[in-house]
């Protein structure tokens, strides 16, 4: 599946699922990661379009000749109604970049990284981190997400060359 189609399929199906899950909003409130849930949902979405294999070759999801790494990036930025935590976001950014480099070495035709950043409003500090990630991507897309309880974040999808 090419980049544009994969983005549209995942975005149009995943964003409503994020909004609908009350339990997922609880995770956002305490800045807890939910990568396992994300993996199951993305696999479920892609199953309608072909064969999906989770955890093949140490890659989160393999779909046809595409490899997708997934991450949930919990920020430490102040956000009303969200538990304050001080773990720096730089560790999460490094993890996304590490996944990009891992996929660059793989032999799959299409290589993508999908990550959710939360909580996140317009934040000038996040833009610096996003620039570090995006410079390792051929192209990328983003869309706002809103959890059931109104906490905002971003969904990002990047193509790796």
UniProtKB/TrEMBL annotation:
Protease found in the keyword field: yes
UniProtKB keywords: Hydrolase, Protease
GO molecular function: peptidase activity
GO biological process: proteolysis
Protein name per its UniProtKB record: ATP-dependent Lon protease
Organism annotation: Nautilia profundicola (strain ATCC BAA-1463 / DSM 18972 / AmH)
């Amino acid at each position: 599946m090419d980049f544009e189609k994969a983005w549209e399929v995942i975005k149009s199906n995943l964003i409503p699922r994020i909004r609908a899950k009350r339990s997922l909003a609880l995770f956002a409130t305490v800045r807890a990661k939910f990568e396992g849930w994300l993996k199951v949902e993305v696999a479920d979405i892609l199953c309608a379009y072909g064969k999906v294999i989770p955890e093949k070759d140490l890659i989160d999801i393999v779909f046809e000749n595409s490899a997708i790494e997934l991450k949930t990036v919990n920020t430490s930025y102040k956000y009303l109604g969200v538990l304050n935590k001080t773990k720096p976001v730089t560790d999460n950014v490094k993890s996304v970049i590490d996944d990009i480099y891992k996929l660059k070495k793989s032999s799959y035709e299409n290589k993508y990284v999908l990550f959710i950043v939360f909580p996140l409003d317009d934040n000038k500090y996040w833009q610096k981190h996003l620039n570090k990630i995006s410079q390792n991507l051929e192209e990328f897309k983003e869309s706002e997400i809103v959890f059931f309880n109104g906490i905002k974040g971003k969904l990002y999808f990047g193509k790796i060359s």
